[in-house]
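Hi there,

I know you've been waiting on this one. I reran it after we fixed the sequence typo, so this is the corrected version. Both the input and the resulting structure follow.
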Amino acid sequence: MNDWIRVCTVEEIPAQGARVLRQAGDIDIAVFRTAADEVFALRDRCPHKGGPLSQGLVHGKTVTCPLHSWTIELDTGNVRAPDTGCAGHLPVRVEAGEVFVRLGRRHG
């Protein structure tokens, strides 16, 4: 599946928060909105212990996992040092306030 799907509007994602896109038989996707209204998508699973990133704290272009405070870059899915790993980033586009995520093209 390599299609873009409409997720929601930018306004439907809380500022400095996330919205979850439930996937049947796959890992859920967390769609994040920064304070600057940038939108990013990651697998909703921390690479450390599987914590729900959608419940983490968004600050700048990062999210902190609610379980053990690992910090993940929203634009790449990479974990910040000294920790290592990747949450898996998905391409996002915003058109006229509508958010689209491209499934099947995970990075990381």
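Quick highlight: Residues 8 and 94 are 10 Å apart (CA to CA).

Best,
R. S.
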